[in-house]
Amino acid sequence: MPTFVVVAGIHGLERVGIQVALHFLEAVLARSSWDPSAQALLARSRLVVLPIANPAGLFLGRRGNGDGIDLMRCAPVDARDRPPLLAGGHRLGNALPWYRGKRDAQMPAEARAVTAIFDHLAARSTFLMSIDLHSGFGNRDRIWYPWAHRRDPFPDARHMPSLCNLLDTSLPHHVYRIEPQGDSYTAHGDLWDWLWLHLRTRQGFSAPFLPLTLEMGSWIWVRKNPRQLLSRYGLFNPVVPHRHARVMRRHLPLLEFLWRAASVPERWLRR
Ligand SMILES: [Zn+2]
């Protein structure tokens, strides 16, 4: 059975992704009570939502977990192409964001929990697609696919043109730029790069796995309302209510589209 996973809250400051994930789940539940096409999707595929992957970070209002480790820099994979200083991951200590944790330490509990869930799902899935919801980078909405640790695309990127084509024709006028993350910047310790390698090499999962990241371009919200820079969450979340509503309206159709595409991979995957 194909599986679609929505992950949010990896970075505790980025609350808007959590809200998108929860609204999506609410909408799916509402639709499943009356809409036969939603019921058919749920029968044909597996939908998993992990709305708060970093509860301590959310509670403390910070990017990293309770120990100040950045869950998107903590995996045991080093950048091959040079990452930006600090933001690409560092071991200088947890007083700075983007901290990778100690060398050779095991991954933090949150990253191990995500790994355990994907191990479980991979053993039961004929296809895996995930979307991890982030905000705080750039002036437009980007959908990234691996790699993050190097600039060339990962092996399953051969399926991305067909997915992009589906998106272009099924969600006309969408706003997304779709690219390998390495085109924006490379990083050490990317959890999705590592999970893809882990499932393929250690778990023997040979079906396609497309771990996507939605990076909501939060600089647009700041540019329109510079005062929100004064708030701790302002760089990462829309603060003005009408902009919050617009962000939800924009991304919920994307999740709906990906869910539909993920449940019929045989219709569009390259052979
Ligand atoms: Zn983030």
Explained architecture:
The chain is α/β, with parallel strands linked by helices and 271 residues long. It has one domain: Zn peptidases (Aminopeptidase), CATH 3.40.630. It has eight helices and six strands, in the order βααβααββαβαβαα. It has a six-stranded mixed beta sheet, sandwiched between helices. Strand 4 (142-145), helix 5 and strand 5 (177-180) form a beta-alpha-beta unit. The longest helix is centred in the last third of the chain and has 23 residues, at 241-263. The model has no long low-confidence stretch (mean pLDDT 94). The structure holds zinc ion. Zinc ion binds at residues 11, 14, 134, 136.
Topology at a glance:
Blueprint: E1 2-8, H1 15-32, H2 36-44, E2 46-50, H3 55-60, H4 109-122, E3 127-135, E4 142-145, H5 160-170, E5 177-180, H6 191-202, E6 209-216, H7 219-224, H8 241-263
Parallel strand pairs: 1-2, 1-3, 3-6, 4-5
Antiparallel strand pairs: 4-6
Bound molecules: zinc ion (ZN).
